[in-house]
Design brief:
The chain is built from 13 helices and 11 strands. The chain is of the alpha+beta class and 517 residues long. The protein has 4 domains: 14-140, no CATH class; 155-273, 2-Layer Sandwich (Beta-Lactamase); 293-351, Signal transduction histidine kinase, dimerisation/phosphotransfer (DHp) domain (Helix Hairpins), CATH 1.10.287; 360-516, 2-Layer Sandwich (Heat Shock Protein 90). The strands form 3 sheets. A 5-stranded mixed sheet has the order 6-8-9-11-10. Strand 8 (421-428) and strand 9 form a beta hairpin.
Length: 517
């Protein structure tokens, strides 16, 4: 209940508001009676008195439909008086020559009051239905919008806007921080009390206006109770405080608060799930990286240390062979570190919005030749065959990155395939197609139907393999090709071996003069 002072003030405001809203209705009732009298006076000799009575009753119905019970009752009494004074003999007098007219007056008054009552009741019922429809629509719209919210800030904005649109005035949705403390608004509106809001949050009970706790407050504070716990506080300073005393409006406020609380809890657990997925993925990548480094970095380092120490004891004529072994191990370690750095650079470029490409018109033959020369240490003397159209046109791409793609594909073929390795290139109307194929056992049977997983980071064809590598080479290839707007795929060749296909978009090269510019 409200305190006595607040209740008296609220009732006084309601009485004043009702009185102000009724006076125009009574004025219109009197004006309607006068208008009907003026309209029917010239018709006295034309219409029967019973028809004139019907016109007066029609006026009562119109007043009841527009202004309600009180004005319709006044209109009924004024119409009876006007009918007696202006239309019943003796005219211009309230005296009645025929006693039967008294029954007419009584029936006319009773029918007018009854019709006005029924019409006003229908009007009130229609208003109640409209109000319920408005409440249901506002609840539906809030639920629909909250279902699409993915962040707590969106829920706060949508909830405050929905409550403010329904009740008017001002509304705030307060949520908790990481320490489970209620965060007050950065710009508190007039009359807002953060301590009362915190009390409602900690005790899980409404406080402020229209409650038993601190009822003198101009704001009404509702805890946002979710299925698991209280998620915040809904603060409302309504345009019409008396609305909070109406059971249906109070229930509507509680329902809106409940929907906001459920949405906040859903968003909270969505964020928890996202953090858990990120942590799991980070843990998986960390374990994969540590496992790869522990094997593929420690092995060449151990070999380098052993070879360097053996130089002290080996005869001078054997130093050359040891030096070559040291160079081979250093190349393997350099390739591993290069892959890690390239992947980090490409990932940072994608996170920033785009990879920085240095596009230029390039000769495909030169880029393929440079890639074969760069991959020569990893090929270990394996034969590489090339096949392309002699009239292959110039293609616009980043030569350094595409060369890196071909080097990784050649190294992958040397590790898992067999000689000869074939490199092909052909030009299609809107694309350049590069292929790298080996004659080994082909892709593992476990990858049948999901060959694209080979291009994921730290993914290898065989989880346990004596072949060194961390599973980054093909991931770098996909990142570079995707940055060029192309596609890369892997499949088993018809007559054995694995074949990787790179498709890059292309356009017709410019004229020589334009290319120089």
């Amino acid at each position: 209940r409200l305190s006595q002072a607040t209740l008296v003030a609220t009732q006084a405001d309601d009485d004043d508001e009702r009185a102000q809203s009724r006076w125009p209705g009574y004025a219109w009732a009197a004006a309607t009676s006068i208008a009907l009298t003026l309209l029917c006076t010239p018709l006295t000799g034309v219409l029967e008195l019973s028809n004139i009575v019907m016109l007066f009753l029609l006026g009562v119905v119109g007043v009841a439909m527009r202004f309600g019970r009180g004005p319709s009752a006044l209109a009924a009494m004024l119409n009876v008086a006007a009918f007696d004074y202006f239309f019943v003999a003796p005219r211009l007098s309230f005296a009645v020559s025929d006693v039967q007219y008294l029954l007419t007056f009584a029936v006319m008054l009773g029918v007018g009051l009854l019709v006005g009552q029924l019409t006003a009741g229908l009007r009130f019922a229609a208003g109640v239905s409209t109000s319920r429809e408005r409440r249901a629509r506002s609840l539906f719209e809030l639920t629909r919008e909250l279902s699409a919210a993915l962040e707590s800030t969106q829920v706060v904005a949508l909830g405050a806007a929905a409550v403010q649109a329904h009740f008017g005035g001002h509304a705030r949705v307060l949520v908790t921080d990481a320490a489970d403390q209620l965060v007050p608004p950065a710009d508190p509106p007039p009359g807002f009390d953060a301590q009362v809001a915190d009390w409602a949050f900690r005790h899980g009970q409404p406080a402020g206006l229209a409650t038993a706790t601190l009822a003198a407050q101009p704001w009404h504070y509702v805890p946002l109770r979710a299925p698991m716990r209280v998620r915040g506080v809904l603060a409302l300073c309504p345009a019409r405080p008396r609305w909070l005393l109406i059971p249906e409006q109070a229930q509507q406020l509680d329902t809106l608060a409940r929907q906001i609380a459920i949405a906040l809890e859903r968003v909270h657990y969505v964020e928890v799930a996202q953090r858990a997925v990120v942590e799991m993925e980070s843990e998986r990548l960390r374990n994969a990286l540590l496992g790869a480094i522990s094997h593929d970095v420690r092995t060449p380092l151990t070999a380098l240390i052993a070879l360097a120490e053996s130089l002290q004891t080996l005869p001078t004529e054997e130093h050359g062979e040891a030096a070559r072994a040291i160079v081979a191990q250093a190349h393997a370690l350099h390739a591993l570190v290069s892959n890690l750095l390239d992947m980090a650079r490409l990932e940072s470029g994608v996170a920033g919005g785009a990879v920085n490409l240095r596009r230029d018109w390039q000769s495909v033959e030169e880029v393929v030749g440079a890639a074969i020369r760069a991959a020569r240490p990893a090929l270990r003397g394996m034969t590489v065959q090339t096949a392309w159209d002699p009239e292959l046109p110039l293609v616009e791409f980043d030569a350094v990155l595409i060369e890196r793609v071909l080097v990784n594909l050649l190294e992958n073929a040397a590790k898992y395939g067999a000689a000869p390795i074939e490199v092909g290139a052909r030009a299609e109307p809107a694309a350049l197609v590069l292929t790298v194929r080996d004659h080994g056992p082909g892709l593992p049977a476990a990858l049948q139907g999901r060959e694209q997983t080979l291009f994921d980071k730290f993914t290898r064809g065989e989880a346990e393999s004596a072949t060194p590598g961390v599973g980054l080479g093909l991931a770098i290839c996909r990142a570079v090709v995707s940055a060029h707007g192309g596609e890369i795929s892997a499949a088993n060749a018809r007559d054995g071996g694995a074949e990787f296909t790179v498709t890059l978009p292309r356009r017709e090269p410019p004229e020589p003069a334009e290319a120089q510019l």
